[in-house]
Design brief:
Length: 115
């Protein structure tokens, strides 16, 4: 797969999930949606991996970076435990529910369950 094909194909695979569209409804930072934030994080992670020849598994890197904030709620109106501490676990639960093929690498604490 070529450079752009790897990134765009992986994002397309993620977007086929029926709940990813919900990320467009939630503001992450300022006026940036959670979707746009996660897309930016995935893009930057992919670029850094290539720029510094880190040789990470690109598909898993993109998936983990994109799903790191897959908590699917408006954190500005969150009434549970402190969002900053609980959202990585919620993102992991949602990712497990929606992406059955989620690899052990993507599920690892380095990618989703803690930051």
């Amino acid at each position: 797969m070529t450079e752009n094909n790897t990134f765009h194909q992986t994002i397309k695979e993620i977007e086929t999930n029926s709940r990813v569209y919900l990320m467009h409804n939630y503001i992450q930072h300022g006026s940036i949606t959670t979707y746009d934030h996660c897309l930016s994080v995935a893009s930057m992670s992919y670029w850094l991996n290539r720029k510094f020849h880190l040789h990470s598994d690109e598909k898993q890197l993109i998936r983990g970076a994109f799903l790191h904030d897959y908590f699917l709620y408006d954190w500005h109106h969150y009434e549970g435990n402190l969002h900053g501490f609980s959202h990585p676990h919620t993102a992991l639960i949602n990712a497990r529910e929606d992406f059955l093929a989620l690899s052990t690498i993507t599920r690892s604490s380095d990618c989703l369950s803690s930051r």
